[in-house]
Amino acid sequence: MNINAQNAHYRDLNERIRAAVADGERDITLDNVRGQRYIGAGLNGGTRITVSGVPGNDLAAFMNGAEIVVRGNVQDGVGNTMNSGKVVVHGDAGDILGYSMRGGRIFVRGSVGYRAGIHMKAYHEHFPAVVIGNRARDYLGEYMAGGILAVLNIESSDQPCVGQWVGTGMHGGVMYLRGTVEAHRLGREVGVSSLSESDWSLLESLIDEFCSDVGVTGRRFLCAEFVKLTPQTTRPYGTLYAY
Fold this sequence. Notes:
By secondary structure, the protein is α/β, with parallel strands linked by helices.
């Protein structure tokens, strides 16, 4: 099913999407999207949405198992508190990607803005993963509590794959960054180590899935150097509180 989003108010567009899903549509294409917010918000599994254009903030917020593919860039807040499902972005993404994300996958072919992975968390079978194809700006993984963040630096330029204050307040989860990362870029709460055999196995699986979804030849990444970032404490700001 095709829906033309040209000049549609975001509420009207989302009502049309929900109505189509309620009628049994499982493959929906949105054309001419121009900044409409909340696309796929709260959507349950079994539906695939392909977006042509640039969706607005909070794409896939609170999503529960659906799949969204964006043939271009996205704005801020992709996967906000997302529970499960998958978002594949063939361009770049804005700020706070995966904010409080609780499960599922987000794959971004290009670069992302500030505070990607902030407050990501995992619980029992819910385990989120974010793979960023190129680079991330400052505060990657801020207050991260669980899940996986991987930055691949596909362009392999002289620029670092991350900005400043990586992992500030991090108290759970793991980050895999391609290349070396200078100590001055890291928050005080994270430690740096080499990847174990189980790390490589997990990262290889994620990279294979990422490359298949975004159309990148990926085996060359597995020959590159990666570093692993993990929190040094589960309660980095414990002294600030009275309990």
